[in-house]
Amino acid sequence: MAKAGLRDSAMERSIKVVNVMEKRTLGSTGIDVSVLGLGTVKFGRNEQVKYPQEFKIPDDEDVMRILDLAWSLGINFIDTAPAYGTSEERLGKLLAQRHDWVIETKVGEIFEKGQSHFDFSAKHTRESVESSLRKMRRDYLDVVLVHSSGDDMNVIHQTDALAELEKLKQKGLIRAFGMSSKTVEGGLWVVENCDVVMATCNLEYNEEQAVLDRAGVLHKGVVIKKGLLSGYAGVAEGGHGIEKSFQHVLTQPAVSSMIVGTINTSHLRKNVDIAEQYRQVTE
Fold first, then answer.
1. Mean pLDDT in runs of 10 for the chain (283 residues)?
2. Which domain does 146 fall in, by range?
3. What is the CATH number of the domain that holds 216?
4. How does DSSP assign the chain, residue by residue?
5. Rounded to two decimals, what is the model's pTM?
6. In a domain, 2, yes or no
7. Could you give the number of structural domains in the chain?
8. Which residue, 37, 39, 123, 205, has most beta carbons within 10 Å?
């Protein structure tokens, strides 16, 4: 039996590239990313995740169908991480000849045997980047973020992760770097000192607005995580939470892209349709 949302159209694999989605420049990096980015946690990990419903990791055919559809709808930006199970390896295998995608990955968090642990040493940071390059079969990585444990300022001041990423950027192995931060203080430091910050912004949490505002002033890249409340936005705001979430995030001038993960092609199409309604105010 066909899987709902994944095999709902035999034509999906042959859709021509449309690329109608709005692209925004990621701060001062010179990298243009689609305003809606594709999150890939569900491509490789279904343990210790906080989504409203359990899910089965899709097979290669279904993942490729999602990637093909995303590209045809104008999405060119993928978010992944070593902590997302086999996500990086699968992207490398399925997109081996597709270096036109912009890929953002991370360092610092390791997920093994059902548990996360963290290593922000220079050695591990360097080895993690080298591993991501091998897994995704690339000569360089577009964006690499430190995957914060939550103690942002300790990671920033007491570890060598960000300094090592700066060195790897100078060597040409990455184009831009920053942090997926979890505090206002950490986010502001990242905006002042790095290329890209990944911040949280949604209908129920707006505490990091100062980070977004400062990033706008300094022309730094802003990528939004948890914009749809980790999958719970559909029941928020009387059932209109998804639309209001997109509006809330994408009308912010500083936001470059909002990462939304899905393995449901119907949801992907709907998300793109909604996102297209909220082009940057400056337009």
1. 40 46 96 97 83 83 96 97 95 90 96 88 98 96 97 98 98 98 98 98 94 98 93 63 91 96 94 87 44
2. 19-275
3. 3.20.20.100
4. -PPTTTSS-TTGGGPPP---S-EEE-TTS--EEESEEEE-GGGT--SS---SS--PPP-HHHHHHHHHHHHHTT--EEE--TTSTTHHHHHHHHTTT-TTSEEEEEESEEEETTEEEE---HHHHHHHHHHHHHHTT-SSEEEEEEE--S-HHHHHHH-SHHHHHHHHHHTTSEEEEEEE--SHHHHHHHHHHSSEEEEE-BTTB-TTHHHHHHHHHHT-EEEEESTTGGGTGGGSGGGTHHHHHHHHHHTSTT--EEEEE-S-HHHHHHHHHHHTT---TT-
5. 0.89
6. no
7. 1
8. 37
